[in-house]
Design a protein that fits this description.
By secondary structure, this protein is mainly alpha-helical. It has helices at 3-26, 30-43. It has 2 helices and no strands.
Length: 44
């Protein structure tokens, strides 16, 4: 995998992580938090 593709995947992973973090802090859509975290881990 080249550097550009790696950066793109890490960016997506970061977005998934931030999405989970924002939902957790707002105590909103708690059923989606686990999915966002799983996606973040898989993308790394």
């Amino acid at each position: 995998m080249n550097e550009t593709a790696s950066i793109e995947w890490l960016t997506i992973a970061y977005h998934d992580f931030r999405s989970a973090q924002i939902l957790y802090e707002a105590n909103h859509y708690t059923d989606s938090i686990g999915n966002d975290l799983q996606q973040a881990i898989e993308n790394c």
